[in-house]
Design a protein that fits this description.
Length: about 280
């Protein structure tokens, strides 16, 4: 059954209509509490396969499974009432062909209540995107740096510099023509991101691209300073919760070892105050 039976108020059509108008706010989320916090502020909440690195300690996104995406998708769905829920299709769940992609995309949507899926790739994924959208599955595309392809890209490098920009632009056109309602542009030069934004009829959502994109997305643990293994150039830290949390943990550990926690206000008396007062002898 769907984790969230309430229809989202923001849909693929809503996002598509924001092209060139109100910037689209998008963040990743992997848990119910985080989804609840961003629901009133974000247009799109993405359950990214970055969950593998951020929460599960994997070295890349390649080890993420359908079961992981469904589990976290269900958790995020429980925290959303307004924002659109989009879920990444994990590596190996769609590349084999349109039929495989449809089966897994349908499962993601059915078991989580997601309003759309996201998959990586440009020209090579156009036929799959067309197949999915023709069968009622909204697709957010993703071109530029595609993390699931790091082994062929040679690492997390900027994509589209010099003559390589033509292939990124071609990919953006291809996914738009195939029916994607938006496209993520990751780690591409600013001028190329602006060119793509002006050229394609669907919203562009930048991550390490340009303020001129139709929207932006960040990994929430990056922007809150909770994931500190590395910090990409395109991440702005809006808080430093990792340092704050570690300091709090250290303070707790010190108090436990000093036996100053729990203090009197944190423990329970043998008798509740009211019961003790009732048993006290009368002064009459």
């Amino acid at each position: 059954m769907s984790a969230n039976t309430q229809a989202p108020k923001i849909t693929a059509g809503t996002i598509l209509a924001q092209k060139g108008k109100t910037p689209i706010v998008s963040l990743t989320a992997y848990t119910t509490p985080m989804a609840q916090m961003m629901d009133a502020h974000a247009d799109v909440v993405l359950v990214g396969d970055s969950v593998g690195m951020v929460l599960h300690g994997l070295p890349s996104t390649l080890g993420v499974t359908m079961e992981m995406m469904i589990l976290h998708g269900q958790a995020v769905a429980r925290g959303l009432k307004e924002a659109m829920l989009v879920i990444d299709m994990p590596f190996g769940s769609y590349e084999e062909g349109p039929e495989q992609a449809f089966g897994n995309a349908a499962r993601l949507m059915r078991e989580t209540g997601a309003a759309a899926v996201k998959l990586e790739g440009g020209v090579e994924m156009a036929a799959t995107i067309s197949f999915l959208t023709a069968r009622g599955i909204p697709v957010m595309a993703h071109v530029g740096l595609t993390p699931q392809s790091i082994n062929t890209l040679g690492g997390y490098k900027v994509q589209g510099r010099d003559e390589a920009g033509a292939s990124v632009l071609e990919g953006a056109h291809a996914v738009a023509e195939a029916g994607a309602f938006a496209v993520v542009l990751e780690k591409v030069p600013e001028n190329l991101a602006n060119e793509i934004t002006a050229a394609v009829p669907i919203p562009t959502i930048g991550i390490g691209a340009s303020a001129g994109c139709d929207g932006q997305v960040l990994v929430v643990d990056d922007m809150l300073g909770m994931f500190t293994s590395f910090k990409p150039k395109f991440v702005k830290r809006y808080a430093d919760l990792g340092t704050t949390a570690e300091a709090a943990i250290a303070e707790y550990a010190a108090e436990v070892r000093a036996r100053s926690f729990p203090a009197a206000e944190h423990v329970f008396a043998d008798q509740a105050p009211a019961a003790a007062a009732a048993k006290a002898p009368s002064k009459d």
